[in-house]
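Extended Data, panel c. Modelled sequence:
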Amino acid sequence: MAGASLAIAPLGPVMAAGVRGLDLSIPLDDATFAAVCRALHDHQVLVFRDQDFDETAHVAFSRRFGVLQAHVLNQYQHRANPEILFLTNVLPDGTLRGEHPDPGSMIWHTDASWSARRALATTLLAVTLPKAGGDTLFANMYAAHDGLAPALRARLAGLRAVHSLDHSRRLSGAREQMTEAQKRAAPPVEHEILRTHPDTGRTAIYLGEHASHIAGMAEDEGRALVQRVNAHATQPAYRYIHRWSPGDFVMWDNRCVLHSATDFDWRNDRRTMRRTTILGERIGEA
């Protein structure tokens, strides 16, 4: 299918677009792949409706964009393929777990900012949806950067934040915290707060709640500044809210987007999402 046949329509005034005319169970030809990449750069979040494909096709689509992550929180990995995460509150026997599928999803973050090899994009397929809630909020970090007060933007220039999965895991209140082996595999890393996107050349805020404090600054002062910038960056003016429907497949650019999930009645209802994370450059490469 040629890329020119795609129908791409904005879903909101700030970010996100719906993409029609694609069956993602079929490999993308070069023209279509290029069109999807352009759309991702233009809109930051892409929504593909009415998709139905298995894990093999999901991985194949994702690998077209780059190397896939095998997440350090291996309790979420698919047993047959560690490149797939299943975020679910349903046990293998069909009963409910009695806890949220992933409490860390409900804090504002960008995937894999806790890693020396940062994420390029994430894909998420709705498998089972609750009757209400379980939406995903996205925030446009280009717009958030452009909306910074000049004095604050000048203050942030050159600063680096310390990102830690252990920090955000504790912040989320997850019952299952990181093991010592997982902590060793994911030590804290530093990233610049104002980041130039390697493909678009635009500047975005690169922060979220994986960030614990600011390198070289007193921890309390740095944490307060992180919280101030996160509050600015996630205000409603910069958001798109995705309310999931069966068969929705959503892809977003982690280099210029923060996201978080809303709560749902996980004690009595079911939500299962299938995810891949596409890795980008390592620290120092861009």
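The helical segments are 30-43, 55-63, 141-146, 150-156, 165-172, 180-185, 219-233. This feature is highlighted in the accompanying rendering.
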